[in-house]
Amino acid sequence: MEIPKFDETFIPILEVLKDGRVLRSRELIEEVKTKFYSDLTEEQLKQETKSGDLLIDNRIAWGKSYLKKGGYITFPQRGFVQITEKGKNHSATITVRDLENESSLFDFYKQEKGSVTVDNKTQPEISSPQDLIDEGFNRIESEVKADLLQKLKTIDPYFFEKVVLRLLKKMGYGEFIETSKSNDGGIDGIINEDKLGLDKIYIQAKRFNEGKVREKDIRNFIGAMSGDTNKGVFVTTSEFDEKALEKARSAHHKIICIDGQKLVTLMHEFNVGIQVRTTYEIKQIDEDFFDEQ
């Protein structure tokens, strides 16, 4: 089962409200999820928007907002929802195209989209405003990650090792020690997980422009690890072939393999090699302000 789009929550919302009850918005969302989306996986239920809201909750909330503007539900008081007579007599299916004939929703839609052309060929956008924001952020994020990976492939190999060690430190794995470049024995850095250095992680960083990490690279890395650790992280700007991954999985040591895509994802998450250019604020009505009257 896929996470529903916001317009696919119209009927479930009205079905939950059809008995005329006045529900808190939070109660409505929970009942809709329980009655109609119980087949969603735990991972899907925990999926978030870019603003940190639960995606399924956000979709239901936007469905509620559109139904209210279409006259199908009303907000009798702050934080509560109730169906209208129009909502009780709704058709078997309701789409954004159906609702755009409502003058109230059409005005709402024009404000969001700038202009709306209504004819038999035009299909209304079925993404909620939050979905559109997330889509834009995802596109920017993908472009930044692609540029970041390309940059990593062109920097000095020794500096790439520093980048990897700085990332792991930023992730909270402790202070690192760079090994001698002239004779590192296949080890580019050592991280002490504790202050006394009793628990160590060995690091191998390979900046590849072409080709994949092979089984022999993993084997050499394992061979270079001394007996005072059983943990290693192998990082590359490229990919690992299947034999290399199998060697890492079957090793007596705990070997973590981080390919180029995973590397730039972590760098993006922990702000290593990137900076925040612009911050956008999303504002909403302050209901408490108006409750003072």
UniProtKB/TrEMBL annotation:
Residues 6-89 form the Restriction system protein Mrr-like N-terminal domain. GO terms for biological process: DNA restriction-modification system. Signal peptide: none annotated. GO terms for molecular function: DNA binding; restriction endodeoxyribonuclease activity. Residues 152-267 form the Restriction endonuclease type IV Mrr domain. InterPro entries: Mrr-like_N_dom, Restrct_endonuc-II-like, Restrct_endonuc_IV_Mrr, tRNA_endonuc-like_dom_sf, Type_IV_Methyl-Rstrct_Enzyme. It comes from the Bacteria. Pfam families: Mrr_cat, Mrr_N. This is Restriction system protein. It comes from Flavobacterium cucumis.
